[in-house]
Write a structure and sequence with these properties.
mainly alpha; single chain
Length: 145
Amino acid sequence: MTTATYDVRRTHHDWVHPLRALLFAGSVPLFLGVLLSDIAYANSDQVQWKNFASWLNAGALLLSGLALLWSVIALLGAERGRRRPLLAGGLLLVGWILGLVNSFMHAKDAAATLPEGVVLAVVVFVLIAVASWLGLATDRVEVRP
């Protein structure tokens, strides 16, 4: 019986601070809640779903705004050759701005939020989810026999 040896290399390794993980990952379910509440409002015309989406959006903007601040500070000390933190910060910034626009959309009359509110909620959720995924991905492991 022969034993095989493997060469394991990490391409880069950064640990994720727990507060950073909370800020990045915490806004994803809140923006998902905004999307689901907007879909529920579009299907039922119960104004409370729009109000619920407004409050979820406010909480999500708070968490993602703090994550954006963390990303800007992290970019100042990041290595110049790494694209992932820059891409995550850029997507987070665009998602936060569109989330703010969605917040203004929810401040309008209840009937005036459809269908733009749902479309914005989908776009913001996708942007924030991808930004969180990129912002929390820390290392890659390469295994060679």
